[in-house]
Amino acid sequence: MALFSLVGLVIYTVASGVVGVRLLLRARKSHGVPELLAGISYLAAPAIGYPLAVMAPQVPNRAVGVPMHMAGEFGVVFGCCCFLFFTVKVFRPGAVWASTLAWLGSAILVWSGVSIVMAFTSYTDPVEVVAKTQLPLSWMVGILLLSYIWIAYEGFRYYRMMRKRMTLGMADGVVTNRFLLWTLSGLTSTSWISVAVFMLATHQSLTNPINVFATCLGGIVNTVLLVLIFMPPGSYVRWVQRLSQAPQLATA
Questions:
Q1: For the whole model, what pTM was predicted?
Q2: Hey, how many other C-beta atoms are within 10 angstroms of the C-beta on 184?
Q3: Are 244 and 196 in contact (CB under 8 A)?
Q4: What's the rounded Cα separation, in Å, for the pair 227 and 181?
Protein backbone atom coordinates (compact mmCIF):
# COMPACT_ATOMS: atom_id res chain seq x y z
CA MET A 1 0.00 0.00 0.00
CA ALA A 2 2.86 2.36 0.81
CA LEU A 3 4.32 1.86 -2.68
CA PHE A 4 0.96 2.51 -4.36
CA SER A 5 0.55 5.61 -2.22
CA LEU A 6 3.96 6.91 -3.30
CA VAL A 7 3.23 6.29 -6.98
CA GLY A 8 -0.18 7.94 -6.60
CA LEU A 9 1.39 10.93 -4.86
CA VAL A 10 3.89 11.42 -7.68
CA ILE A 11 1.23 11.15 -10.39
CA TYR A 12 -1.11 13.47 -8.50
CA THR A 13 1.63 16.03 -7.93
CA VAL A 14 2.80 16.11 -11.54
CA ALA A 15 -0.71 16.10 -13.04
CA SER A 16 -1.92 18.88 -10.71
CA GLY A 17 1.17 20.93 -11.50
CA VAL A 18 0.56 20.64 -15.23
CA VAL A 19 -3.09 21.65 -14.88
CA GLY A 20 -2.20 24.52 -12.54
CA VAL A 21 0.47 25.93 -14.86
CA ARG A 22 -1.80 25.62 -17.89
CA LEU A 23 -4.55 27.52 -16.09
CA LEU A 24 -2.14 30.25 -15.02
CA LEU A 25 -0.91 30.62 -18.60
CA ARG A 26 -4.50 30.87 -19.75
CA ALA A 27 -5.22 33.48 -17.06
CA ARG A 28 -2.21 35.49 -18.24
CA LYS A 29 -3.70 35.71 -21.73
CA SER A 30 -7.35 36.13 -20.79
CA HIS A 31 -6.84 38.14 -17.58
CA GLY A 32 -9.64 35.99 -16.16
CA VAL A 33 -9.92 35.83 -12.38
CA PRO A 34 -11.49 32.32 -12.29
CA GLU A 35 -8.61 30.84 -14.27
CA LEU A 36 -6.14 32.63 -12.00
CA LEU A 37 -7.77 31.38 -8.79
CA ALA A 38 -8.10 27.81 -10.09
CA GLY A 39 -4.52 27.78 -11.36
CA ILE A 40 -3.13 29.03 -8.05
CA SER A 41 -5.32 26.58 -6.17
CA TYR A 42 -4.12 23.48 -8.02
CA LEU A 43 -0.50 24.58 -8.12
CA ALA A 44 -0.31 25.63 -4.45
CA ALA A 45 -2.30 22.83 -2.78
CA PRO A 46 -2.00 19.46 -4.58
CA ALA A 47 1.11 20.15 -6.67
CA ILE A 48 3.29 21.72 -3.96
CA GLY A 49 1.64 21.92 -0.55
CA TYR A 50 0.20 18.43 -0.11
CA PRO A 51 3.31 16.43 -1.10
CA LEU A 52 5.50 18.60 1.15
CA ALA A 53 3.11 18.15 4.08
CA VAL A 54 3.02 14.38 3.54
CA MET A 55 6.79 13.95 3.20
CA ALA A 56 7.86 16.33 6.00
CA PRO A 57 7.07 13.93 8.90
CA GLN A 58 9.21 11.28 7.20
CA VAL A 59 12.30 13.52 7.16
CA PRO A 60 14.53 12.68 10.17
CA ASN A 61 16.37 16.01 10.06
CA ARG A 62 14.12 18.52 11.83
CA ALA A 63 16.04 21.43 10.34
CA VAL A 64 14.74 20.27 6.96
CA GLY A 65 11.43 18.71 7.96
CA VAL A 66 10.02 21.68 9.87
CA PRO A 67 10.44 24.27 7.06
CA MET A 68 9.16 21.68 4.58
CA HIS A 69 6.07 21.13 6.71
CA MET A 70 5.47 24.87 7.11
CA ALA A 71 5.72 25.40 3.35
CA GLY A 72 3.41 22.46 2.74
CA GLU A 73 0.72 23.69 5.12
CA PHE A 74 0.93 27.18 3.68
CA GLY A 75 0.44 25.80 0.16
CA VAL A 76 -2.53 23.65 1.19
CA VAL A 77 -4.26 26.48 3.07
CA PHE A 78 -3.59 29.11 0.43
CA GLY A 79 -4.71 26.84 -2.39
CA CYS A 80 -7.92 25.82 -0.60
CA CYS A 81 -8.76 29.46 0.16
CA CYS A 82 -8.32 30.36 -3.51
CA PHE A 83 -10.64 27.50 -4.44
CA LEU A 84 -13.36 28.81 -2.14
CA PHE A 85 -13.25 32.19 -3.85
CA PHE A 86 -13.13 30.51 -7.26
CA THR A 87 -16.46 28.87 -6.41
CA VAL A 88 -17.92 32.23 -5.39
CA LYS A 89 -16.61 33.98 -8.50
CA VAL A 90 -17.98 31.37 -10.91
CA PHE A 91 -21.23 30.26 -9.31
CA ARG A 92 -22.32 33.01 -6.90
CA PRO A 93 -20.86 36.32 -8.09
CA GLY A 94 -22.27 39.22 -6.14
CA ALA A 95 -23.87 37.00 -3.49
CA VAL A 96 -22.95 38.45 -0.10
CA TRP A 97 -23.71 35.22 1.75
CA ALA A 98 -21.39 33.21 -0.52
CA SER A 99 -18.55 35.70 -0.14
CA THR A 100 -19.07 35.71 3.63
CA LEU A 101 -18.89 31.91 3.76
CA ALA A 102 -15.70 31.95 1.70
CA TRP A 103 -14.06 34.44 4.07
CA LEU A 104 -15.23 32.49 7.12
CA GLY A 105 -14.00 29.21 5.67
CA SER A 106 -10.66 30.80 4.79
CA ALA A 107 -10.27 32.14 8.34
CA ILE A 108 -10.86 28.66 9.77
CA LEU A 109 -8.40 27.14 7.28
CA VAL A 110 -5.73 29.67 8.25
CA TRP A 111 -6.28 29.01 11.97
CA SER A 112 -6.12 25.26 11.34
CA GLY A 113 -2.92 25.54 9.31
CA VAL A 114 -1.19 27.69 11.94
CA SER A 115 -2.26 25.33 14.74
CA ILE A 116 -1.01 22.28 12.83
CA VAL A 117 2.36 23.90 12.16
CA MET A 118 2.72 24.92 15.81
CA ALA A 119 2.03 21.36 16.94
CA PHE A 120 4.51 19.93 14.43
CA THR A 121 7.25 22.34 15.52
CA SER A 122 6.58 21.91 19.25
CA TYR A 123 6.49 18.10 19.46
CA THR A 124 8.75 15.41 18.02
CA ASP A 125 6.79 12.34 19.10
CA PRO A 126 4.42 11.36 16.24
CA VAL A 127 1.79 10.24 18.75
CA GLU A 128 1.82 13.65 20.42
CA VAL A 129 1.70 15.42 17.07
CA VAL A 130 -1.35 13.41 16.02
CA ALA A 131 -3.07 14.18 19.34
CA LYS A 132 -2.33 17.91 19.22
CA THR A 133 -3.40 18.28 15.59
CA GLN A 134 -6.65 16.35 15.98
CA LEU A 135 -8.82 19.43 16.56
CA PRO A 136 -7.41 21.77 13.88
CA LEU A 137 -7.29 18.94 11.36
CA SER A 138 -10.91 18.13 12.10
CA TRP A 139 -11.88 21.74 11.39
CA MET A 140 -9.78 21.83 8.22
CA VAL A 141 -11.18 18.56 6.88
CA GLY A 142 -14.70 19.66 7.85
CA ILE A 143 -14.38 22.90 5.88
CA LEU A 144 -13.01 20.99 2.88
CA LEU A 145 -15.85 18.47 3.04
CA LEU A 146 -18.47 21.24 3.12
CA SER A 147 -16.75 23.12 0.30
CA TYR A 148 -16.68 20.03 -1.95
CA ILE A 149 -20.36 19.35 -1.24
CA TRP A 150 -21.04 22.98 -2.15
CA ILE A 151 -19.04 22.61 -5.36
CA ALA A 152 -20.95 19.48 -6.37
CA TYR A 153 -24.28 21.18 -5.63
CA GLU A 154 -23.46 24.30 -7.65
CA GLY A 155 -22.22 22.24 -10.58
CA PHE A 156 -25.37 20.11 -10.60
CA ARG A 157 -27.60 23.18 -10.24
CA TYR A 158 -26.02 24.79 -13.29
CA TYR A 159 -26.04 21.49 -15.20
CA ARG A 160 -29.80 21.14 -14.73
CA MET A 161 -30.38 24.73 -15.87
CA MET A 162 -28.22 24.21 -18.95
CA ARG A 163 -30.00 20.96 -19.83
CA LYS A 164 -33.34 22.76 -19.79
CA ARG A 165 -31.93 25.50 -22.02
CA MET A 166 -30.53 22.91 -24.42
CA THR A 167 -34.03 21.61 -25.11
CA LEU A 168 -34.88 25.13 -26.34
CA GLY A 169 -31.67 25.46 -28.34
CA MET A 170 -30.39 28.16 -25.98
CA ALA A 171 -27.33 26.37 -24.54
CA ASP A 172 -24.17 24.78 -25.89
CA GLY A 173 -23.67 21.06 -25.34
CA VAL A 174 -19.96 21.39 -24.54
CA VAL A 175 -20.57 24.02 -21.86
CA THR A 176 -23.39 21.93 -20.40
CA ASN A 177 -21.07 18.92 -20.25
CA ARG A 178 -18.49 20.95 -18.34
CA PHE A 179 -20.98 21.59 -15.56
CA LEU A 180 -21.65 17.85 -15.39
CA LEU A 181 -17.90 17.20 -15.14
CA TRP A 182 -17.64 19.84 -12.42
CA THR A 183 -20.37 18.03 -10.48
CA LEU A 184 -18.45 14.76 -10.79
CA SER A 185 -15.30 16.55 -9.63
CA GLY A 186 -17.07 17.76 -6.50
CA LEU A 187 -18.45 14.28 -5.78
CA THR A 188 -15.02 12.72 -6.27
CA SER A 189 -13.46 15.16 -3.82
CA THR A 190 -16.26 14.52 -1.35
CA SER A 191 -15.48 10.80 -1.55
CA TRP A 192 -11.77 11.05 -0.80
CA ILE A 193 -12.17 13.67 1.91
CA SER A 194 -14.64 11.30 3.57
CA VAL A 195 -11.76 8.85 3.99
CA ALA A 196 -9.85 11.58 5.84
CA VAL A 197 -12.90 12.12 8.05
CA PHE A 198 -12.88 8.42 8.90
CA MET A 199 -9.16 8.53 9.68
CA LEU A 200 -9.63 11.42 12.07
CA ALA A 201 -12.65 9.78 13.69
CA THR A 202 -10.56 6.68 14.39
CA HIS A 203 -7.60 8.78 15.65
CA GLN A 204 -5.28 7.88 12.79
CA SER A 205 -2.75 10.12 11.06
CA LEU A 206 -3.68 11.64 7.71
CA THR A 207 -0.22 10.59 6.47
CA ASN A 208 -1.43 7.00 6.78
CA PRO A 209 -0.75 5.24 3.42
CA ILE A 210 -4.43 4.37 3.07
CA ASN A 211 -5.48 8.01 3.32
CA VAL A 212 -2.65 9.19 1.08
CA PHE A 213 -3.62 6.59 -1.53
CA ALA A 214 -7.31 7.57 -1.38
CA THR A 215 -6.43 11.26 -1.66
CA CYS A 216 -4.09 10.73 -4.58
CA LEU A 217 -6.50 8.40 -6.40
CA GLY A 218 -9.29 10.94 -6.02
CA GLY A 219 -6.89 13.70 -7.05
CA ILE A 220 -5.86 11.86 -10.20
CA VAL A 221 -9.51 11.33 -11.18
CA ASN A 222 -10.14 15.01 -10.49
CA THR A 223 -7.16 16.00 -12.62
CA VAL A 224 -8.60 14.07 -15.58
CA LEU A 225 -11.92 15.83 -15.04
CA LEU A 226 -10.17 19.22 -14.87
CA VAL A 227 -8.37 18.56 -18.14
CA LEU A 228 -11.71 17.75 -19.79
CA ILE A 229 -13.22 20.91 -18.29
CA PHE A 230 -10.50 23.48 -18.93
CA MET A 231 -8.40 22.02 -21.76
CA PRO A 232 -10.38 19.22 -23.42
CA PRO A 233 -8.90 17.34 -26.40
CA GLY A 234 -10.53 18.07 -29.72
CA SER A 235 -11.76 14.48 -30.01
CA TYR A 236 -13.61 14.77 -26.71
CA VAL A 237 -15.22 18.07 -27.71
CA ARG A 238 -16.41 16.57 -31.00
CA TRP A 239 -17.81 13.55 -29.16
CA VAL A 240 -19.78 15.77 -26.77
CA GLN A 241 -21.06 17.87 -29.67
CA ARG A 242 -22.31 14.78 -31.50
CA LEU A 243 -23.93 13.52 -28.31
CA SER A 244 -25.65 16.83 -27.64
CA GLN A 245 -27.11 16.84 -31.14
CA ALA A 246 -28.54 13.34 -30.82
CA PRO A 247 -32.36 13.22 -31.06
CA GLN A 248 -32.79 11.52 -27.68
CA LEU A 249 -30.90 14.34 -25.95
CA ALA A 250 -32.47 17.17 -27.91
CA THR A 251 -35.92 16.02 -26.91
CA ALA A 252 -35.08 15.09 -23.28
A1: 0.85
A2: 20
A3: no
A4: 10
